[in-house]
Amino acid sequence: MNIHNIRNFCIIAHIDHGKSTLADRFIQKAKIIPDREFRDQILDTMDIERERGITIKSQAISIPYQNTDGEMFFLNLVDTPGHVDFSYEVSRTIYACEGALLLIDASQGVEAQTLSNLFMAMEHDLVIIPVINKIDLASADIERVKKQIDHDLGLDPDTAVSVSAKTGIGIDELFQAIIKEIPPPQGNKDDTLKALIFDSHYDTYRGVVVHIRVFSGEIRAHQQILFFAKNASYKVEETGIFRIGLQKTDSLGPGEVGYFIAGIKTISDSKTGDTVTDSDNPCSQPLPGFRDVKPVVFSSIYPVDTNDYEELSTAMEKLKLNDASLVYEKDSSAALGFGFRCGFLGLLHLEIVQERIEREFDLSIVFTAPSVQYKVYTSGNKCTLIDNPQEYPDPTQISKTEEPYITASIITPDTYLGNIITLCLEKRGEQKNMTYLDEKRVEIVFEMPLAEVVFDFYDKLKSLSRGYASFDYQISEYKETNLAKLNILLNGKPVDALCMLLFRDNAQKRARQVCKKLRDEIPRHQFKIPIQGAIGTQIIARETIPALRKDVTAKCYGGDISRKRKLLEKQKAGKKRLKTIGNVRLPQSAFLSVLKTDSD
Length: 600
Fold this sequence. Notes:
Rossmann fold; 26% helix; alpha+beta; eight-stranded antiparallel sheet; six-stranded mixed sheet; elongated; Alpha-Beta Plaits; Elongation Factor Tu (Ef-tu), domain 3
């Protein structure tokens, strides 16, 4: 394949601006697949992706395209995830390309992730082609979007290509712009092999299929290769390019995007961002930018039926085969039995894992309240990372605690500005910047704790702005905080699955919520049940479930009053004794109601 006829590009945009739909039109135009076999979002392999209209895993495809002069080009497209949880995947995909299509919704305009993805592409010196999508909508305002491209993004609006990915308008013009504007890749076939892993997926029969972009040298079957970060050597079994499936080739040369199979057993062995080189003649330096992806949100998973633990264990192992970013270890709770403590890239990642377990493995599961990772300094200034409330040390041994902060960028119409600023301040945010992008839209930058965003921030933001505000964030640093461990006591006994780590000033409000929810969900018993929220030995919230009353005096239809008193005293003593030895039945619905509690 002639390197001058290769174009490597990705599509970057804010979530739901039409990336996958545009990829569909490219595939249809190139006639890679017969029309009768075509379906919408063909690159998205999971049902959840189609239902939600989001891309969870990046997908690659090699598109053959013949221009008007009859010259054949090979356009390697990588469709990237649009959600902030997967920003590292997006950064590695961008590094694998020479150009990017920056997709902008003709009715919504420039949004928060449009800006963050643009800056990421600029850092890697990519050629950026602005694409105005959804021009077929009645609400489309192309001139307004062109002004935003000029003012907000600093790009030339005259280079913008107007398309409708849904109807196919402007796709030929976009193909021409890709060939004309995006430069061909550089690289020499005779140099040492240097290739970037930008993704991978697991095949049940063949093991891990590694997605790579070759920068120099050549990779072919039976070649011995080395992974830089893992320092592991493998023998290549097969190489090929991406069409709708995998298409085998003899080798992959400089500038090409494709895959190789080398008998790799687990997906965590092929880390995204790692460099692949020749074992016998390795390159001196790896490609820059590699880092281990670390989870930021933590939660425990338990089966609703404790007998389903083995099935849940099998489900987690199978999920891990396809999702290297999922981190988990065994966990147990006195109330919920055996389960797993898991780490996720964000709340969307958590929701996806939950849905996949319930759908693909037909399991009913309970998630504990999501938490972030805190730094706890004990006496002697020893730092410990803690994400599980069960591991929280004795408060008398703690010198200080720190929590992760984020830099949040919110773009909103100015109509909703006051409500959104109030929301951010309620979430302990500190305003850093405010910029009017035009006469109607404002960008505000806040620094706030990640723990405040984890619960319900995104939902509230969308409600307050009627869906118009867009939100993007980056983890910034750890800052000192006043952390407390909230225990929930039932009949004086702590329920370990309901305890949580949170900011001390928010503890009383949260404890009252939980106690009220439990009071409504727990059935009445023969004895009075106190529900308490406590920090250490201090009770900060309480609700009481009254006892079921049995009329023991019903049979006393006459006689002295002392007969009734005697029966009532006997009942009182029995209830007192039952309270000390009785167990409170805690239904699963009580856990679910507490974990879905809003932070109001």
